[in-house]
Design a protein that fits this description.
Elements lengths: L1 E5 L5 H10 L4 E6 L2 H13 L4 E5 L5 H15 L4 E4 L14 H22 L8 E7 L10 H21 L5 E7 L11 H12 L9 E4 L2
Parallel strand pairs: 1-2, 1-4, 2-3, 4-5, 5-6, 6-7
Helix pairs in contact: 1-6, 3-4, 4-5
Length: about 220
Amino acid sequence: MSILVIGAGPGVSGSVARRFARDGHDAGLVGVDEAQLATLGEELAALGVAAHHEVADITDAEACTAAVRRLAERLGRVDVLHFNPSAYREADPLTLTVPQLLQDVTLGVGALLTALQAARPSMAAGARVTATGSMAADKPAPGVASLGVQKAALRNLVQSIDGALRGDGIRAVSVTVRGVLAREGAFTPDRVAEAIHAAAHQDEADWRTEVPYSG
């Protein structure tokens, strides 16, 4: 079994990788920080699984595609594709520019398309696509206007992915985190990772493409 994490780092994405590693999933990690990826890889290896990583700018479709394909080849198959990144830009609708919005959406939404299309040949029936969502999709904060757009679009895209792939036995789900990430309490990265893990293991007969996590 294996998980491919897009936007891997020390937060929720790292917790997701470790949670699936405890189930025996080898990991492929795509991110921008070599040191963070190496550290996470060591943590996963300590859990008894193989971990590989690629440094890539996922907004660069060619680089992202190449990185995902290399990792999929090393893993042999992709059982879970987890998408985590988003852009946090402090700009309200009166100052946010169209190029900035498009740049943020490319990172927080478009890169999922790139990763999915690159990983799809390595995904078989039973594979899952998961994504870290946010309450910003429903209650956007004006001061970070692009974040709400990203998360609303991400949820919509995940629903489309599920509709396109469920006939092949592949399902997709986004987990809407209805709280602020913290080091303690209900919204630690590890608690959110547990919610994502549970969403990936839903009964397919009652599958939901969007699962809220309220702690």
